[in-house]
């Protein structure tokens, strides 16, 4: 089968078909979504011909041998820590969700990692209705889902972005404020969903209410984080930082997001879409912050 591989750059190559385990369905992939993390932090020691990729959508061609649903012919969106960038994908039945007819599979491909991360991280903040929630890196894939989901939960959403241009459209998704970095904020916040790391994570921590919490999701800045805890004591901040990691299996959360998308209550925020022959172009655009939201590649 054909797949996207690094040889040494991102290009199409030929690799063996995957062999599903009994708990896995075999899916014919029609669309994949690229994530900043899987490109920016690609393992340097990946074996030749390794198929990367977390998010893909398509049609089941062979159901799981252990009897797990769904059946062959079912439209699905899938998640896994590798194997998405290929014509065929073996995926755990517990890490996929059924996609209704009439819903664009390419849009659902944008949901797994970014959408479920935003959903689970927001859930870990606890009840946010009528509370101030700061989202850093709000113009990216996770950020744009987080803005929508936090607003749906009743939060006062503060979207932090890198430039005015990156903030365009966020008020329409539910942001009550759009700021250029968190440093200029004066009012405290209850919760933070941080996708940037580095200096912005430190600044966000100092803004917490006494019972507040930061979910440290990503490090798009690629910078280490240094926090002045003496300054935190002066500010009387008694909040906490939690290192966020996505919880699997995520089929149930993925099904919830598909339902929101299918009923018009969630926008997939696909900012770049094209054939998978243009994967290198899409990856470069993501790394250069030229994509608002998600990048989706369609297979022939």
Tell me the domain tally. 2
Overall pLDDT, averaged?
Answer: 94
Query: What is the share of helical residues?
Result: 10-25%
| Major sheet | 7 strands, mixed
Radius of gyration: 19 Å
Number of helices: 9
GO molecular function, one term: oxidoreductase activity, acting on NAD(P)H
Protein name: Alcohol dehydrogenase
Organism: Nonomuraea aridisoli
Keywords: NADP, Oxidoreductase
Question: What is the strand and helix layout of this fold?
Answer:
Elements: E1 2-6, E2 10-14, E3 24-34, H1 36-40, E4 55-62, E5 75-79, E6 88-92, E7 96-98, H2 105-108, H3 112-125, E8 132-136, H4 141-152, E9 156-161, H5 170-173, E10 177-180, E11 189-194, H6 198-205, E12 208-216, H7 229-234, E13 240-243, H8 251-262, E14 270-275, H9 279-287, E15 294-298
Parallel strand pairs: 8-9, 8-11, 9-10, 11-12, 12-13, 14-15
Antiparallel strand pairs: 1-2, 3-4, 3-6, 3-15, 4-5, 5-7
GO molecular function: NADPH binding; oxidoreductase activity, acting on NAD(P)H
Domain Enoyl reductase (ER): 9-297
Organism: Nonomuraea aridisoli
Features of the shown structure:
300 residues; alpha/beta; Quinone Oxidoreductase, Chain A, domain 1; Rossmann fold; 7-stranded mixed beta sheet; 6-stranded parallel beta sheet; globular; NADP
């Amino acid at each position: 089968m054909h797949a996207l591989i690094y040889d040494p750059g991102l290009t199409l190559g030929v690799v063996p078909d995957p062999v599903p385990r009994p708990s896995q369905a075999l899916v014919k992939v029609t669309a994949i979504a690229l994530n900043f993390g899987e490109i920016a932090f690609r393992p340097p020691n990946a074996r030749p011909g390794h198929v990367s990729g977390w998010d893909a959508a398509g049609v089941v061609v062979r159901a799981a041998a252990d009897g797990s649903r769904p059946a062959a012919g079912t439209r699905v969106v899938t998640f896994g820590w590798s194997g998405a960038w290929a014509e065929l994908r073996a995926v755990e039945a517990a890490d996929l969700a059924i996609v209704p007819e009439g819903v664009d599979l390419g849009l659902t491909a944008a949901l797994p990692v970014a959408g479920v991360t935003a959903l689970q991280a927001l859930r870990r903040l606890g009840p946010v209705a009528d509370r101030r929630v700061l989202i850093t890196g709000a113009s990216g894939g996770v950020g744009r889902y987080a803005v929508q989901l936090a607003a749906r939960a009743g939060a006062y959403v503060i979207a932090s972005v890198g430039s005015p241009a990156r903030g365009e459209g966020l008020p329409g998704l539910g942001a009550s404020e759009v700021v250029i970095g968190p440093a200029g904020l004066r009012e405290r916040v209850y919760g933070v969903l941080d996708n940037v790391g580095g200096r912005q994570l430190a600044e966000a921590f100092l803004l917490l209410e006494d019972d507040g919490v930061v979910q440290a999701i990503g490090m798009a800045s690629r910078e280490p984080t240094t926090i002045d805890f003496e300054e935190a004591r002066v500010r009387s901040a008694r909040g906490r930082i939690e290192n966020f990691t996505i919880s699997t299996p995520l089929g149930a959360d993925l099904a919830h997001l598909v339902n929101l998308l299918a009923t018009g209550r969630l926008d997939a925020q696909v900012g770049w879409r094209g054939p998978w022959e243009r994967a290198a172009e899409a990856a470069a655009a993501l790394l250069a912050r030229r994509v608002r939201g998600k990048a989706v590649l369609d297979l022939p």
